[in-house]
């Protein structure tokens, strides 16, 4: 199952399948967009994804289900659509998203983490994308996303070998933002999420939208909507509050309007 809770303006989505190192079942994949679609970005100014317990972020999709839910081409395509809906819901959530990674982050777990804006891991974390070890087709949209993040030679090595790699490599090739000692991971990620949540939410959502648009080809970019989001910031009460707080030498209190 996936558990969700809120602490102030920070949402926590917890992958909870401890018996199987938080392997993501079909039901859990379906839960992800259901939960995210229910969230109000004005209230949830930062969303953190993590695994339950201490052993794993997510050890991958639940392979044990594959004989039942991927036994035919039609079923496999249906399953892949469910996964893409889950990935897209994380990518398209307007507020910043963070993966807090500890232990195993393999296969579908790695793919899910790569949908978030920021990724922080404990020193003991392990990564890998092993479809070549299972004979699975790896969808081209996942490859396209990875191509925007990694050098072709790094991506080929990861996918050709299916090898597990550590945080040092993940940091070096650009998958991670930072690595922390395991006993400090939650505290450090919580501080980052809180810092984000205290900033002007309209500004952050505008920036996130524009960055995501510039990851597309130029003809696909919605410049009109980028401009509208900037205008919304300029005309907001938060702009007035930010300037006033600066002049009064106090911390601003942003309301997202």
Notable traits:
alpha/beta; four-stranded mixed beta sheet; 12 helices; 2 domains; single chain; 47% helix; 2-enoyl-CoA Hydratase, Chain A, domain 1
User: Given the C-alpha coordinates, what overall shape results?
Assistant: globular
Strand order of the largest sheet: 1-2-3-5-7-10
CATH architecture of the largest domain: Alpha-Beta Complex
Mean pLDDT over all positions? 94
- Could you spell the SSE succession in H and E letters? EEHEEHHEEHEEHHHEHEHHHH
Q: Mind summarizing the main beta sheet?
A: 6 strands, mixed
If helices are DSSP runs of H or I spanning 4 or more residues, what is the number of helices? 12
> Which structural class best describes the helix and strand composition?
alpha/beta
CATH topology label of the largest domain: 2-enoyl-CoA Hydratase, Chain A, domain 1
**Which stretches are low in confidence, meaning pLDDT under 50 for 5 or more residues running?**
none
Task: Report the strand count.
Answer: 10
CATH superfamily of the largest domain: 2-enoyl-CoA Hydratase, Chain A, domain 1
Strand content: 15-25%
Q: Give the quaternary arrangement of the chains.
A: single chain
Alpha carbon gap, first and last residue? 34 Å
From the alpha carbons, calculate the radius of gyration and give it in angstroms. Answer: 19 Å
Pfam family, one: ECH_1
Keywords: Lyase
Protein name: Enoyl coa hydratase-related
Family: Belongs to the enoyl-CoA hydratase/isomerase family.
